[in-house]
Design a protein that fits this description.
This protein is an alpha+beta fold and about 325 residues long. It has two domains: about 100 residues, Methane Monooxygenase Hydroxylase, Chain G, domain 1, CATH 1.20.58.1690; about 160 residues, no CATH class. It contains eight helices and ten strands. It has a four-stranded antiparallel beta sheet with strand order 3-4-5-6, covered by helices on one side. Helix 3 runs antiparallel to helix 5. The radius of gyration is 39 Å and the shape is globular. About 20% of the residues are buried.
């Protein structure tokens, strides 16, 4: 046999032997039995927490514990409404009162008018498509009562409603407790924060203008030596509170208002030293009280007039 042919055959056999041996399947590693060195760092899983997570339970709890912070008609979520509590409230406003209960819990409204109304309120948060599970038994009963009144109450404008409140609620400088509850909450408590019903708070209407209503309001501090704090509250004709002007404090139950001339008025109130005495102090005699009551410490006088627009202007 030719030597060259022999060499070629040997090389060919060797080539195919190496080729088939390299293609042979190798055994798999048993990963579960492999132990890693402590020097090999383990991969770390980082959980990213979303920022500003909304606490739904805290939101609902705050509403149920203190509904007064949310909405103008918060009384419907706090007090049981009955009898004449909703008198002088027109059906269109009753609908707002009823839906405000749902809005407080973050209900998303489908009705365009309701959605626009509540989205204009800075307290409203559209969160849920259904808030039935949050409604309390008291609110559920009030919703049914409001619906009844929506079918029977006559229409009345907000201007007429506020005027009725002013004429009915204030008897001189004293408050009439017989006013319908929702009117009292809407116009009085929302403005004067008289939630505790202190017996020695006084209000009086100042001469009105074409565009505005002014009430002077005095709040008692609640102790034997406390003073009264006097403020003027400005409302528009619908009864919406626009501004509060603080006047000062005194020992008088209420300030006095006098018309000095055409469109010129004066409010005055006085400090008496007797109000500084402790009623439980046995060393304070009747003579001391009488002398103190007849001798004022100081009289504060505030003058004002109205401009052409009806704005109250305090004299400098």
């Amino acid at each position: 046999m030719n030597t060259n042919i022999t060499i070629k055959i040997i090389l060919l056999i060797g080539f195919y032997t190496l080729f088939f041996w390299g293609c042979k399947t190798r055994p798999k590693l048993e990963i579960e039995n492999v132990s890693f060195s402590e020097e090999v760092s383990q991969p770390q899983i980082v959980v990213l927490k979303p920022k500003n997570v909304f606490d739904t339970l805290a939101f609902i709890k705050r509403i149920q514990e203190n509904p007064r912070e949310i909405g103008r008609y918060w009384a419907a979520s706090r007090y049981s409404l009955k009898d004449d509590d909703l008198d002088y409230i027109p059906p269109s406003e009753l609908r707002l009162i009823r839906n405000e209960i749902f809005a407080r819990y973050g209900y998303r409204f489908n009705d365009p008018a309701l959605r626009a109304h509540f989205e204009s309120q800075d307290w409203y948060k559209p969160l849920f498509d259904n808030v039935e599970k949050f409604i309390t038994p008291l609110e559920r009963a009030n919703i049914g009562f409001i619906q009844e009144k929506e079918r029977t109450n006559p229409n009345i404008s907000y201007e007429e409603q506020f005027q009725f409140f002013l004429e009915s609620y204030f008897i001189g400088k004293w408050k009439n407790p017989q006013i319908p509850e929702m009117l009292r909450h809407k116009f009085y408590l929302s403005a004067f924060d008289d939630n505790f019903g202190l017996p020695h708070n006084y209000s009086e209407q100042l001469p009105p203008t074409n565009n505005y209503i002014y009430l002077i309001h005095s709040v008692f501090g609640g102790c034997s030596a406390c003073t009264y704090h006097h403020s003027i509250y400005q409302f528009n004709r619908k009864g919406e509170l626009l501004e509060t002007l603080y006047l000062g404090e005194s020992d008088d139950y209420y300030p006095y208002v006098e018309e000095k001339s055409s469109n010129r008025y004066e409010i005055w109130f006085t400090f008496y030293p007797g109000m500084r005495y402790d009623v439980d102090d046995p060393s304070v005699t009747d003579e001391m009280w009488e002398e103190a009551a007849a001798t004022p410490i100081d009289t504060i006088r505030v003058q004002f007039h109205y401009n052409r627009d009806g704005q109250l202007i305090l004299a400098e």
